[in-house]
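Extended Data, panel c. Modelled sequence:
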Amino acid sequence: MLPLAVLTPILLAIGIFLLLDKPEPLAPKDMLAKTQWTSDELGRALGRSMSPHFDRNQRSNVQRHLYQQVKNLSPEERRQVNVAAVHYAIDETLAQLRAMPGDKRREMMDKLNDRAFDNYMKIQNMPESKRQELRNALDSEGAKAVGGEIVNAVYGKLTPAERGELGPTIKLWIKTIDVLEK
């Protein structure tokens, strides 16, 4: 047992830290209001905005705001933020999926598949000039790092059963990439 003389300053330091530590604003309206972000906060906030449970009505506004903040970072910091965001989004989505009962899980898988299909159709119907812009953006080192993180997640974090469940969505992602490469 620690003596009270040692324990008191430790508890005081912890108490001060907890009082001074400002939690990251995670509500969409708070994210939109915040203008000063650390790289870690941006990674978590972007990752959270990619979560299937994030408010869809606010997603694009929040992501646009966050990416404006990311533009202020160095190329290496941008790459790190994007990788952290994808890593966070994947981990968060997997945690949500694994905690869901079967019917809710199927509903979420269907949502992911619907979003993948919507993205596929959007890119399929995109003018060639816009597709070229997207190709150029995806050819960056940051985009390649994000793609690598996704591949690592599919093979390293998903169980074989989960890969089977996500099979249709993964096929749509591959079709989307194929459309971009044409």
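The chain has one domain: 24-181. This feature is highlighted in the accompanying rendering.
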